[in-house]
Every structure is written in structure tokens, then in C-alpha cells.
Amino acid sequence: SECRWDGQFLLNCSFTRISTIPEDISQTAVTADLSYNNIKTFVCSDGRNEQWMLKHLNLSNNLIAELTLTACTNLPILETLNLNGNAIHTLTLDMPTPAHGSKKFSVVDRLLPALKVLSVERNNLNTVPRGLGLLQSLQSVHMTSNAIRQIDPKDFQNCSQLKDIDLRNNKITKIHPDAFRDLNKLQVVVDLRENALTIPLPQILVRLNFFQLEVYLSKNAW
């Protein structure tokens, strides 16, 4: 391919018109930029159980419509995943329930254990992806410019490290009063600008009860 490799840490495949991820990506790469291409699918594990040393993966502005992260057990130190500007309508994080007595899905404990930033802006999501709580280190989630319509009480359940939630420019009309409950580390911002909210949110704001939290609510329908 026309990818550029610095021989040590950086792989740059941006604007190379590739439709698949190169099979010969060096496992020593720390940053991989695969943005602005024609990639339609991304499979984390190729079955060889070889671990990549990637910390930053940029898959923005491709053609990905569906993505499953449950098999990403070979990216143990990945910290940022950029999926902006695709066509993602389904993002699967949660594991299927194993059969009684089976340990088939015990790898859930190793699902992107170092991921801090998940960015899925400008896609086609109509709900918050289920299973965000499985990403044990997740601190920031960016989902601006999707088609999300409501925030349910389990959407951010168990996201104990979450500091920053960006839901700007969606179609949100309803937020459950307990949607952000127990997110004790929220300290940066909850951005709900440019949605379809019609009533103020006093219950949610009172339950958050964080002095340093910034909540943005402008350009809604009230």
C-alpha cells in the first residue's frame, strides 16, 4: 500500500484510498492513522492472538457501518479510538451471555482495558452503545452529531471513570433522571447542546451534585 511507516512508532495510511486494513501492520506501532479511506470493516483480532502495541487508532472518515469491539483482546494498551465521520449505526460492546457453566466469554475482562477516549461523532447511532461500562478505563465519550433520541438509566451504568460526555447535536427528547447517577468522576462537561429537549432538567442536575461540573444545554427546544 501507500502507507508511510517511520520504522518505529508511527503508521500513516491517511488518504491512501485503501479499502482494507493492511495485513502487515507492525505490532510495534504506537499510532496508526487510517483516516480518509474506503475501509468498510474493522476486525480487531485476526485469530492469531498477537497483541498490538497501539495506543492511538484513527479510523475516522471511512465507510464503516457496523462495528464489534467485543473481540478486541489484542489491543491491551489502546488509549484512544477515533471512529468519527463513518456511517456507524451499530456499535457492539457488550458480550453475549455465556451458556451455564461456560467460560467462553471470560475475555470480557480484557476488552480494551486501557481505552480512555472513545469518539463516535458524525455517525448514524440512534442509541447510546450498550456496554460502555465494560470499558474499565473510559474517561471521555464523544457522540456529537448522531441521531440519539433518549438517554436511558443503563446507558452509562458502571462507567465509573467517566469524566466527559459529549452528546451535542443529536435528537434527544428524553433523559432519565438517573441517567448520570453514580458517575462520581464527572468533572469536565456534560454537553447536551443542539438537541430536542423541551423541559428543563432540574432533577438530573440536582442528582449530579458536583460543584465543578459544567453542563451545556443551549439551543434546545424549550
Structure description:
The strands form three sheets. A ten-stranded mixed beta sheet has the order 1-2-3-4-6-8-9-11-13-14, with no helix packed on it. The protein is globular and about 55 Å long. It has one helix at residues 202-208, and strands at residues 4-5, 10-12, 31-33, 56-58, 66-68, 80-82, 90-92, 117-119, 140-142, 150-151, 164-166, 174-175, 189-191, 214-216. The chain is mostly beta strands. It contains one helix and 14 strands, in the order βββββββββββββαβ.
Shape: globular
Largest sheet: 10 strands, mixed
Mean pLDDT across all amino acids: 85
Rg, alpha carbons? 18 Å
Q: Strand pairing plus helix content: what structural class?
A: mainly beta
Tally of DSSP β-strands: 14
> Uncertain regions: pLDDT < 50 for 5+ in a row?
99-107
**Beta-strand level of the residues, as a percent range?**
15-25%
Count of alpha/pi helices: 1
Strand order within the widest beta sheet = 1-2-3-4-6-8-9-11-13-14
User: Kindly, what is the distance between the CA atoms of the first and last residues, rounded to a whole number of angstroms?
Assistant: 52 Å
Summarize the helices and strands and which ones pair or pack:
Blueprint: E1 4-5, E2 10-12, E3 31-33, E4 56-58, E5 66-68, E6 80-82, E7 90-92, E8 117-119, E9 140-142, E10 150-151, E11 164-166, E12 174-175, E13 189-191, H1 202-208, E14 214-216
Parallel strand pairs: 2-3, 3-4, 4-6, 5-7, 6-8, 8-9, 9-11, 10-12, 11-13, 13-14
Antiparallel strand pairs: 1-2
Organism: Edolisoma coerulescens
Keywords: Leucine-rich repeat, Repeat
InterPro entries: Leu-rich_rpt (IPR001611), Leu-rich_rpt_typical-subtyp (IPR003591), LRR_dom_sf (IPR032675), LRR_TM_domain-containing (IPR050541)
